[in-house]
Design goal:
heterotrimer; A alpha/beta (311); B mainly alpha (388); C mainly alpha (249); A: 311 residues; alpha/beta; Rossmann fold; CBS-domain; six-stranded mixed sheet; four-stranded antiparallel sheet; 15 helices; 13 strands; globular; C: 249 residues; mainly alpha; MetI-like fold; 10 helices; elongated; disordered C terminus
């Protein structure tokens, strides 16, 4: 558990982060979202003390980060940034093994961990281990960057716009990958983003920052349904709110008995997927399947009802 | 910046420490004549205390004024004050030490003077860098410094110093050498520009030509200067002997011609390479636009490529000018004249003053040219780039 | 590339022959020598002059590299930042000092012989190396530096493991410039009695023996070309290894 306690950073008399308090549960993804200058990156960088807080403190599992030397603290916390920040003069294996090496892990253990992570990120170890960053595609570089951050099994992974440099199509895949890996490893992640779409897609919790203050902290559904301030409402975007709501509801939750024509959608798809399938093919209902077996249908009527219900 | 936060300039502290240390080494030397070994005199004993104290106070005060980091103007003032103190002590010492030391006695500035001079010049530079004056202000400042230097030398206050005595006995030869040095440096620059610009334009237009010419010119630059000067002698000697009338134009194996030719050859690479780079600096979109509005290739060159590449072209000329002023010193070795004559005479006779008489003006000339050319390069830059 | 594969061994063979077996070139240089004068410089062995010449350059460059990289590291730290604008101006202006003048001015302080040459080469060599080291150390990819801090490298580890290796190609370029300038300037050292190949050229100048001038000049020129080429190869190799897509010039 990460407790951020009244943490404040003042630059030249102006608070960049103003007495922010929040708690991050272990094993969850928290996305800090805000416009540029909102203080979101400063908040993140104070967690691993790349910025020293003016006042307040951060506790990781009850221990104050101020009691640990900054560089030793950072070795316990993974850190991945936009544009990956890989060491161009080290190959992939050395990049991923950077923190374990700092922690004096034995060589064979580092090697095994590197291969394990490459496999986890769908990169064949034998093929990629000895390549240099310049020999990788943008998406591969980004994955190696995240793998490096995870290498020493950190208590916490901090990510600063990790997908910012990727083009939109790869970004969606990278987000799915991160979600999958986070579930598999049970890691705790705090991620900074300017993109509410990304926050809702990835976050178990979303924290919205504005002008150095934490204006709302809650589940994605909460943020969309009950924006705390006009700023949050603005970030969520009024026009798309019904659609965003729909994207949060899995088909399994509203499936009803009955049949429908056309191709089936998987049960863990969202109502938004169902809506677009209906509109695209001109159907009034779509069949739903789970592991290949049809389990029922979702009608356009149901979708409309859900979109209006809490909007 | 760390220094600004504490209010004390870190370079200022360094200068103050070094400056105080420089006061503890001999300030001037006094020798009974040109041959015997000289002995050092400390700054406070170059003249009676009543005369040295104002100078010493100015020196220490100048060092102290260099300390406040946030006050570059004050630091500049401190440097000027320090230089004034240095000059005062030199003037007092020059006449004071000679008093009653005999007709052949010689006084020279010693390590202490050179160190303090360097320290105050650096302190002045540091303050100026902090003030970041525009090109015109820098030009004015340079003119003021040169004027002050001229007045000091003109006044004869420093005339008793041995290097100026050396000058006094060679006035005509010095003027001759200065003219010759300038003729070598600027003449070869002009010739190289006359040849280099057209060649550079051709190279810009023709990729093949560029591939053939630039490596040859690069190779010319690796020839050691001494050998280049030496090789020009037989070549020009042969031309002078075998081409009728060539000798009437002063083409001969020794003297001005071989030195001049060697300098021109060395100058070609920077001129041609920077012309090519300058012409290539125009953004493709501008060239495209110029073509689109119907400019001929000559019009494009004159109205788009040359104006945009001018700063780079001038940078090439700066490199050449500074390089040639330095290389022209070597001309002294092959009878080409210039300040090098004194340097090599001085080396032969182990006469430090003679070496200084040749070396100091060369260094000054190179520095002044570099500063002036830097100002010109900056003035030709587009406004927006200058502000950035 | 192909031209290099032929030219490189040719240059090295020619250089070795000129230094080790100068008498082979008697017929080539003979037309250039005055009648009756010796064609091949024999007052001291060209090998020992070459070794002394290269030794002076190597010693001066090594010392200059050590000092200027150290200074560059200092001015690129936060504590030394106040010295940075000053050091840039000193480098810029220092490079305008004529090498001969520096050499001549070192004589009154150090006397004749190898001493003043070594000092002049050292002082002159400082500037390009310092300039390039500062450039290399201050133009590091910001994301990489941020990551280096973020994953917990301390200052020293960042310097040794990240900053210096990444700046190395640019530093090497400075060393190459410095070496080539020094190889040429060292010949002038013979005017103050340093043992360098300049001795051959000066002997030629004094006796109007063009064969000597060409012989000395050719050897120094070939050394410069060979060293220049070797260092470019080294830079390209290191730049490739450090994963940069293209080697800086």
């Amino acid at each position: 558990m990460i407790e951020i306690d009244r943490i404040t950073k003042i630059y030249n008399g102006v608070p960049a982060v103003d007495a922010v308090t929040m708690t991050v549960e272990s094993g969850t993804i928290t996305v800090i979202v805000g416009t540029s200058g909102s203080g979101k990156t400063t908040l993140l960088r104070m967690i691993n003390r790349l910025e020293e807080p003016t006042s307040g403190e951060v506790r990781i599992n009850g221990e104050s980060t101020l009691e640990i030397k900054p560089h030793l603290l950072r070795r316990r916390i993974g850190y991945a940034i936009q544009g990956h920040g890989l060491f161009p003069h080290h190959n992939v294996a050395r990049n991923i093994g950077a923190v374990p090496t700092l922690l004096n892990w034995p060589k064979d253990k580092i090697r095994a961990r590197v291969d394990e992570l490459l496999t986890l990120f769908s990169m064949e170890p034998a093929e990629f281990r000895d390549r240099f960053p310049a020999e990788l595609s943008g998406g591969q570089q980004q994955r190696v960057g995240v793998a490096r951050a995870l290498a020493s099994r950190p208590d916490l992974l901090l990510m600063d716009e990790p997908f910012g440099a990727l083009d939109p199509i790869i970004r969606a895949r990278a987000q799915d990958d991160l979600r999958r890996i986070q579930r598999a490893l049970g890691s705790t992640i705090v991620l900074v983003s300017h993109d509410m779409e990304e926050a809702i897609r990835l976050g178990d919790r979303v924290a919205v920052m504005d002008g150095g203050q934490l204006v709302q902290h809650g589940t994605p559904a909460d943020i969309i349904a009950n924006p705390a301030t006009p700023f949050v409402a603005d970030m969520v975007g009024d026009m798309e709110r019904p659609l965003r709501l729909l994207s949060l509801v899995p088909l399994a939750e509203v499936v009803e008995d009955g049949g429908a024509p056309g191709a089936a959608l998987p049960a863990d798809g969202s109502l938004r997927d169902a809506l677009s399938a209906c509109l695209w093919t001109g159907r009034t209902a779509v069949p739903v399947e789970r592991e290949g077996a049809l389990i029922g249908r979702v009608t356009l009527e149901t979708i409309r009802a859900r979109a209006g219900l809490r909007a | 910046m760390a220094g600004a936060r504490h209010g004390v300039s870190h370079p200022g502290v360094l200068f103050a420490v070094l400056g105080l240390a420089a006061l503890l080494v001999p300030f001037m030397t006094l020798a009974a004549n040109r041959i015997v070994a000289a002995e050092g005199v400390m700054a406070w004993s170059v003249a009676p205390a009543a005369l040295t104290i104002p100078g010493l106070v100015a020196l220490v005060l100048g060092l102290g004024l260099g300390l406040p980091a946030a006050r570059p103007r004050l630091r500049l003032l401190g440097a000027v004050l320090g230089l004034g103190g240095l000059l005062w002590l030199l003037v007092q010492g020059a006449s004071g030490l000679l008093d009653g030391a005999g007709d052949y006695a010689r006084v020279s500035p010693a390590l202490g003077v050179w160190c303090l001079l360097t320290i105050f010049m650096l302190s002045m530079t540091d303050a100026l860098v902090q003030l970041a004056p525009g090109p015109l202000a820098r030009g004015t400042l340079l003119a003021a410094v040169l004027a002050a230097l001229a007045v000091i030398l003109w006044s004869g206050a420093l005339a008793p110093l041995s290097v100026l005595q050396e000058y006094a006995s060679r006035k005509a030869a010095f003027a001759d050498a200065a003219l010759r040095h300038l003729a070598l440096a600027f003449g070869s620059l002009a010739t190289a520009a006359l040849i280099g610009f057209p060649v550079g334009i051709l190279c810009h237009r023709n990729r093949r030509l560029r591939g053939a010419i630039l490596p040859v010119l690069s190779f010319l630059q690796t020839i050691p200067s001494l050998a280049m000067f030496g090789l020009m002698i037989p070549i020009l000697g042969w031309i002078g002997d075998s081409v009728p009338g060539a000798q009437a134009f002063g083409i001969a194996g020794i003297g001005f011609a071989p030195a001049f030719l060697a300098l021109v050859l060395y100058s070609l690479l920077p001129v041609v390479a920077n012309t090519v780079a300058g012409l290539a600096a125009a953004p493709p979109a501008s060239i495209e636009a110029a073509r689109g509005m119907g400019m001929t290739s000559g019009q494009r060159l004159l109205r788009v490529e040359l104006p945009m590449g001018l700063p780079i072209l001038l940078t090439g000329l700066r490199i050449v000018l500074v390089q040639n002023i330095g290389l022209a010193v070597i001309a002294g070795l092959i009878g080409g004249g210039g300040f090098g004559t004194f340097v090599f005479q001085g080396l032969n006779q182990t006469a430090t003053d003679l070496i200084l008489l040749g070396a100091l003006p060369s260094v000054a000339l190179a520095l002044i040219s570099a500063i002036v050319m830097d100002i010109l390069v900056e003035l030709t830059r587009p406004q927006a780039a200058r502000a950035a | 590339m192909k031209a290099g594969a032929i030219l490189r061994p040719a240059v090295i063979l020619l250089l070795l022959a000129l230094v080790l077996k100068p008498e082979w070139f008697t017929p080539v240089f003979a037309p250039l020598a005055p009648e009756g004068a010796p064609v091949i410089y024999a007052r001291s062995s060209l090998l020992s002059l070459s070794l002394s010449h290269l030794g002076l350059v190597a010693a001066a460059t090594t010392a200059a590299t050590f000092v200027s990289v150290t200074l560059a590291i200092l001015v690129t730290r936060e504590a030394g930042a106040a010295f940075r604008p000053l050091s840039r101006t000193i480098t810029n202006m220092g490079q305008t000092f004529p090498p001969v003048a520096v050499l001549a001015l070192a004589v009154p302080a150090l006397g004749f012989g190898n001493g003043p040459t070594l000092v002049a080469l050292f002082l002159y060599g400082l500037l390009p190396i310092f300039e390039n080291s500062v450039t290399g150390l201050s133009n590091l990819p910001p994301a990489t530096m941020e990551a280096a801090r973020g994953i917990g490298l301390n200052r020293w580890q960042r310097l040794i493991q990240v900053e210096l290796p990444l700046a190395l190609p640019v530093i090497l370029t400075g060393i190459r410039l410095s070496v080539v300038i020094s190889l040429g300037t060292a010949t002038i050292g013979s005017t103050v009695a340093a043992r360098t190949l300049g001795e051959v050229i000066i002997a030629g100048l004094l006796t109007s023996n063009t064969a000597y001038v060409l012989q000395g000049g050719l050897i120094v020129g070939l050394f410069a070309v060979a060293v220049y080429d070797a260092l470019i190869q080294l830079e390209a190799r290191i730049a490739r290894r450090s994963g940069a897509r293209k080697a800086p010039r």
